[in-house]
Amino acid sequence: MRGAFAAVAVLSAGAGALWALAPGGLGRQAPVRITDGVSASAYRELSGAASHGPGWLGGLFELATEGTLVALGLLWLWTGMRAWRDRNPRLGTGLALTAIGTVVAYALSEGLKLVADQERPCRALAGADPLAACPPTGDWSFPSNHATLAAALAVGLALTRPRLAAVTLPLAAAAALLRVLVGVHYPHDVLAGAVLGGAVAAALLVLARSAGRLHQA
Fold first, then answer.
1. Over the Cα atoms of the chain, what is R_g?
2. How far apart are CA 57 and CA 53, in angstroms?
3. Distance linking the first and last C-alpha atoms of the chain
4. Residue 119 per-residue DSSP state
5. For the segment 129-184, what is each residue's pLDDT rounded down to a tens digit?
6. What is the pLDDT of residue 216?
7. Is 54 helix (H, G, I), strand (E, B) or coil?
8. How far apart are alpha carbons 121 and 134 in whole angstroms?
9. For residues 208 and 109, is the Cβ–Cβ distance under 8 A?
10. Gap between the Cα atoms of 13 and 7, Å rounded
11. How far apart are CA 38 and CA 102, in angstroms?
12. Is 27 exposed, middle or buried (0-12, 13-18, 19+ CB in 10 A)?
């Protein structure tokens, strides 16, 4: 019962954070365009600094954006191989719940995009010069799918096998920051994605731990 309360608390805190970060597109006919405020200013500073770097930096950042997700996926696979080799069902359960949490969080992020209808900063902000190609109209910005996936995997792996936290959590942070640096997301987009992915994965694993099914090593 205590684990269920803890899981609800995690999800409630995550939902509250998402509500605070959301641009408020529900019920509007036109997409939400954010052109001022803290997040827009931070976007201009970060993406502007990156766009003034050497020409090869854009390709490197785009590659690194996908590379963080690949690295987290490989860590999940490597941990799964250890669970199979050691015949450790508890570790396997934690990894399975991490995968389920990642899929659920991704589905929720896609649903939130359709509700928020927030325009990408590379189209909403005058003078934006993104390193990456700006996604097409209708591919909304809030929340960031990359940040959602990275946070769900990172938090799930960190709770399942805490010694990996020193690697997985910085990778997730890098995945989020890179989406801003290449110019396709505002900072509040990636923060919302990280909250969503982390909260869903954590809630599932907190429940499993309370039931004695989560291996911690």
1. 18
2. 6
3. 24
4. P
5. 888 888 888 889 999 999 999 999 999 999 999 999 999 999 999 999 999 999 99
6. 47
7. coil
8. 9
9. no
10. 10
11. 29
12. exposed
Residue indicated by tokens 């709770």: 159
* Tokens representing residue 52 in the block: 């003034």
- Closest C-alpha among 137, 138, 112, 153 to residue 25: 112
Residue 87 tokens, joined: 């015949």
| Tokens coding 110 | 């896609």
pLDDT digits over 14-28, tens only?
Answer: 999 999 998 876 656
Query: pLDDT (tens digit, 9 = 90+) per residue, 34-75?
Result: 888 999 999 999 988 887 777 677 778 888 989 999 999 999
User: Tokens 């719940």 sit at which residue?
Assistant: 97
* DSSP for 121-168, written as a single string: HHHHSTT---SSPPPPTT---SS-HHHHHHHHHHHHHHHHSGGGHHHH
183 — alpha (psi -120 to 50), left (phi > 0) or beta? Answer: left
Pull the structure tokens for residue 152: 């769900």
